[in-house]
Amino acid sequence: MSGKQQSELLLEVSDIHVYYGAIHAIKGISFDVRPGEIVALIGANGAGKSTTLNTIAGLLKPRSGSIRFKGENVTGTPASRMVFKGLALCPEGRRIFQQMTVKENLEMGAFSRPNTEIASAMEDVFTRFPRLKEREKQVAGTLSGGEQQMLAMGRALMGKPDLLMLDEPSMGLAPILVEQIFAIIGELHAAGTTILLVEQNAQMALSVADRAYVLETGTIGMSGQAAELLNDDAVRKAYLGH
Amino acid sequence: MWNTVFPYLLSGISVGGQYALIAIGYTMVYGILRLINFAHGDVFMVAGIVMVYLSASGLPLWLVIPMVLIITALIGFVIERVAYKPLRSAPRMSVMISAIGVSYTLQNLVLYVTGGLNKMYPTIPGISETVMVMGAKTKMVTLVTPVLTLVLVVLLVTLINKTKIGMAMRAVSKDFETSQLMGIKINSVISATFVIGSFLAGVGSILYFTNYPTVIQTSGAMPGLKAFVAAVFGGIGSIPGAVLGAFIIGIMENIIKGLDVILFKSGLISAPLGLSTFSDAFTFALLIIILIVKPTGLFGEKTTDKV
Q1: Is pLDDT above 70 for B303?
Q2: Which CATH architecture has domain B11-293?
Q3: Pairing with A87, which of A99, B45, B79, B265 sits 20 to 30 Å away (CA)?
């Protein structure tokens, strides 16, 4: 791979191995994300999708392999520093601050930004999620599941990330809300946000993504254009259920 | 009747304020680390010893007091870095054992330095003088303590609710991982918590020991325990809870100390019953009752953790 191509990649993961104690969770996976893309990681429960995102975010350290973000080697950089480099993870299960208000949650999302930029970032988030504006003063724990997901995404966007990583945004949501969340992901993409998406709902993920990688117990099985994978017989059988 | 009760009430409020300043340290550390910092009462005692030695060195008092507070805060910082931080991912029981170890280490260090002798606590102009309040004779510190305590508590609550470091503290107390994802450095926040808690214990120490002639290596144990009970009573993890709990315990304890006199003067008993002996027992009976009836305390959140 030439140097020029490398610098065009926003995120480049090369042959990372991640362990939980003695358990070898990620067994050498490599993939990349280019600016402006939506890339989906799909796969069954326990395939290592969330582990991969947590490793990129800096919550876990790979035992070997490298992660480059915006051309810089960020392997092993702690999560609290990755945010400042322009990477946001909207974690699995949303993990919003239940006791804080919607507004405070969004302010938390802008922790890495100078105070002067918070107001405008919040305005952007409220434009994208008018529902959050209505619930601004409400305690986050009282929001519905869909609203909590919007809040978690809004919180991640408050940091104005160059790469937004979404871990199972559809988890536990009613079908109509899943549609809504994916419509918003589409809008974010149209507005130029680069997204790395982890989903068990392969159908939805592939319909919104540009490219996708299929994870199978810690390794990458297939990869390609999302549209092609959507029509691939093996993928259809294993992950789409028809 | 009022004239009999008032002096006890007054010193109760004062002692309550001193307990409150210690209890905040317990409750804040618990809020963030889910750790009962058993060394906290000893940090409070060390602040007293530092005061003794610094004032004996001949430095002016306006310099000694801030130095005592800074050194106490620093001790809290170092304890966390040395004894708790390396155990961040260890089981909680290990950290608690480490805290007990720190407690004994501090006591023995002081024992070594002082030779186990009672050290005269210096008199501090402005708070050591005796004054008359509505017919009750007391020290200035009795009046200064509740005011200073409330001012510090208001400042602390403002810090926690309005500033960025306060926001970070609230986030870290709920969720380590997500806080990191927001860009918060967990270790800095934990250090800040220990610094604030120890600083307040330092203030409490100056106010508390002014009421007593001397300090010794075990002087931190009883006030530390009382403050701990106050924190549990108020709902461990809650700052308003700890403050309220401390004032209630301080007042009740002192009322019980004076109960014989109060009952005797009001004609309810004809001979003293020796009830004042039970003032400490009351505090610990309260702890037992709270743990049985409402383990989460007055303002505590429901939690499934057990220590």
Answers
A1: no
A2: Orthogonal Bundle (1.10)
A3: A99
